[in-house]
Amino acid sequence: MDHSNYVIDTMISAKTIAARVEELAREITETFKGTDKLIVIGLLRGSFVFIADLVRELDLPVEVDFLETSSYGDGVESSREVRILKDIRGEIAGRDILVVEDIVDTGHTLHHVLNLLKSRKPKRMEVCALLDKPSRREVDVTATWTGFEIPDKFVVGYGIDYAQRNRNLDHIGAVRFLDES
Ligand code: IMP
Ligand code: MG
Question: Is pLDDT of 72 > 70?
Fold first, then answer.
């Protein structure tokens, strides 16, 4: 099937996202109140816009780090095999960390990343995911905070891509493939 022919239907507006990011940041700030430093770890590349907005709303001493895992390639199906392409730079032993993910889909990525980070003995590890597709879950993993629960649709925008495109959309939209006929 040729996937080049598609349209994007708006699912979550930029305004709705901004309001939710503010709420999430307030809860995260409350949770980590008194920390000497919160290390915010963004999973590349899909979380880059979300993390940029989120950290600017946090009223805490913050450090930012990034970790990159292998992705879906150019398709819409999960490979289920998770590899670390780029590890974080800093030490997390004994630190407060917040893992920031764009979408929890089958859960394989988050499950793998959390196991890896947990093995390094952070003091406290919490997770904030912008989107959650609970109906697609294959591994039992849940974020501490979720921005929005969404149906089983392939989405793009606000950092999230389809074949590396559409990350720069300011809202979240669902990809709808058009018939070639
Ligand atoms: P999981 O391992 O199946 O939970 O997949 C998680 C990763 O797959 C996310 O971090 C996204 O990068 C990617 N992904 C899952 N659903 C979508 C989607 O609807 N659009 C774009 N990327 C997605
Ligand atoms: Mg991702």
Answer: no
What is the pTM (predicted TM-score) of this model? 0.94
Q: Is 54 left (phi over 0), alpha (psi -120 to 50) or beta?
A: alpha
Domains of the chain listed by start with CATH number: 6-177 (3.40.50.2020)
- Give, for ligand 1, the residue of 47, 160, 176 to mutate: max count of ligand atoms closer than 8 Å to Cβ: 160
**Considering 96, 102, 105, 132, which one is annotated as catalytic?**
105
Interval between CA 32 and ligand 2 midpoint (Å): 24
- Residue pLDDT, tens place only, 82-139: 899 999 999 999 999 999 999 999 999 999 999 999 999 999 999 999 999 999 999 9
Q: Which ligand is nearest to the CA of 139?
A: 1
DSSP string, 110-170: HHHHHHHHHTT--SEEEEEEEEE-GGG--S----SEEEEE--S--EEBTTB-BTTB-TT-S
